[in-house]
Write a structure and sequence with these properties.
Rossmann fold; Helicase, Ruva Protein, domain 3; two-stranded parallel sheet; binds glutamic acid; binds zinc ion
């Protein structure tokens, strides 16, 4: 069988972790099977549709390097792939169902349906939803409604007896009594718009979709879709509902846990390789051990059999760790290219950068590489190079448990050692040893000496390695900052 799968997002919001995982699993499955990956835009909900969401979809897939074989922009033999361009088709098929006695026109006004709902709620009635009022209208009754100019909706005739089973590759058979399936849902609205169920089933069939991989929240729609396929006389595709993506607390992943929009991750400086790799490990594993996979690896190795039944946990810390790993695999040149937009945005550098400026930034990149969790960390880590430090609260100079007086003395003496060492060309290690000797002589922990130097040079208690920072700044600028800091400290402790 030639595998054909699709990702069918509704452009109503930004692409989030769960959606992207669905896209990736479909894409990898298609690639691994030598099949086709189709992108379909389910934009039938015009009220919730946004242009921004559609742009975000394209940007996100491009960023991840996921290309679709058929779909918007690239076209294909089953197009158009945007549902709002297929409205005539849905109408035609819905009317065909009516002609075949599988669906019917319903003339109920919104007022009648509201009243019905209120009544059912007041009576706490077991029967909720549409009461199938129009299911068996006589020709005369219909004619009367038509004469009144009421434009009907089309509803599906859901069998009232028996049950419907659909098979899910992961979950096995899922059976529901037909009387528990939504009572005669609307397929086509009076304005000619299809509902999700109608458009989704028609398109999956006409586009020759063989496997449906989508979020588990769609399981409740399964029996209804099977009934629709039967009404059309079509063979349903295979289903594989994907396990939920949860936060660490066992709740469905949501904004409460942190960002879920891929765009946010992209802006913070997660690499597409890292996000793609980690998200693919949420609910899928290769052999339970190997964790690192490139997109190309997964295009080859992905199998449905290895999808977990249990919900997958999305761990922000783990993603951050993956990101760090991928950052460290970059060459300095590659990494600098990725960091530049952040440096430009912060107003630290302006493009183009070349010559000595570029060399300087390459040194910065090399020094920062080990410490970057996300690309945007470069802004805090490099601020000291581009802006003079301001020390608002002098306690920042003090290591834990050391007072300002002792800190000032430590910095005074450390400066002497540092300056002498650097000017006489001692190596980092020797200077460091001398500073450690000072610490022990003063009865301080190492931080008691290094913290004030670090804060004087970089303005921050967290920074790049000290000697790298000094080299990046130049001895002269670093000494100037230490002297300025000493002035301020001495005035304060006098
Ligand atoms: N448009 C639906 C969504 O946004 C598609 C669900 C499906 O894959 O059938 O999730
Ligand atoms: Zn009705």
């Amino acid at each position: 069988m030639d595998v054909r799968v699709r990702y069918a997002p509704s452009p109503t919001g930004l692409q989030h972790i769960g959606g992207v995982r669905t896209a990736l699993f479909n894409y990898f499955f298609a690639r691994a099977q030598g099949g086709k990956f189709i992108l379909r835009i389910e934009d039938t909900d015009q009220e919730r549709y946004t242009e921004e969401a559609l742009e975000d979809l394209y940007e996100t897939l491009a960023w991840l390097g996921v290309k679709w074989d058929e779909g918007p922009v690239v076209g294909g033999p089953y197009g158009p792939y945007v549902q709002s361009e297929r409205f005539d088709l849905y109408k035609e098929y819905a009317e065909k169902l009516v002609a075949d006695g599988k669906a019917y026109y319903c003339y109920c006004t919104p007022e009648r349906l509201d009243a019905l709902r209120a009544e059912q709620q007041a009576a706490k009635s077991e029967q909720q939803g549409y009461d199938r009022h129009c299911r068996n209208l006589s020709a005369e009754e219909r004619a009367e409604y038509e004469r009144q100019g009421i434009v009907p909706v089309i509803r599906l005739k859901v069998p009232t007896e028996g049950k419907t089973t659909f098979h899910d590759i992961l979950m096995g058979d899922i059976t529901r009594k037909n009387r528990d399936v939504s009572p005669d849902p609307v397929l086509l609205k009076s304005d000619g718009f299809p509902t999700y169920h109608l458009a989704n089933v028609i398109d999956d069939h006409l586009m020759g979709i063989t496997h449906i991989m989508r979020a588990q929240e769609w399981i409740p729609s399964g029996p209804l879709h099977i009934i629709l396929y039967e009404a059309f006389g079509w063979q349903p595709p295979a289903y594989c509902h994907l396990p939920m993506v949860m936060g660490k607390d066992g709740q469905k992943l949501s904004k409460r846990h942190g960002s879920t929009a891929v765009r946010d991750f992209r802006q913070q400086g997660y690499l597409p390789e890292a996000l793609l790799n980690y998200v693919s490990m949420v609910g899928w594993s290769y052999d339970g051990e190997r964790e690192f996979f490139t997109r190309e690896d997964l295009e080859e190795l992905f199998t449905l059999e290895k999808i977990n039944k249990a919900p997958g946990v999305f761990d922000y810390k783990k993603l951050e760790w993956f990101n760090g790993q991928y950052i460290r695999q970059k060459s300095d040149e590659e990494l600098l290219e990725l960091l530049l937009p952040y440096l430009v945005d912060a107003g630290f550098v302006s493009l183009p950068v070349d010559g000595e400026g570029r060399q300087q930034l390459l040194l910065l990149t090399a020094s920062a590489k080990e410490r970057l969790k996300v690309l945007s960390d470069i802004v805090t880590l490099s601020r000291f190079l581009f802006e003079e430090p301001v020390w608002d609260d002098l306690s920042i100079f003090c290591a834990k448990g050391v007072d300002l007086g002792v800190t000032t003395e430590a910095l005074t003496r450390a400066y002497g050692i540092l300056r002498a060492g650097l000017e006489s060309g001692l190596g980092d290690q020797e200077i460091e040893d001398n500073l450690m000797a000072l610490a022990s002589e003063m009865g301080l922990k190492v931080g008691g000496v290094f913290m004030p130097i670090r804060v004087a040079v970089t303005g921050s208690a967290v920074s790049l390695p000290l000697f790298d920072s000094i080299r990046l700044l130049s001895n002269q600028r670093a000494f100037g900052r230490i002297e300025k800091a000493l002035d301020i400290l001495k005035r304060e402790v006098r």
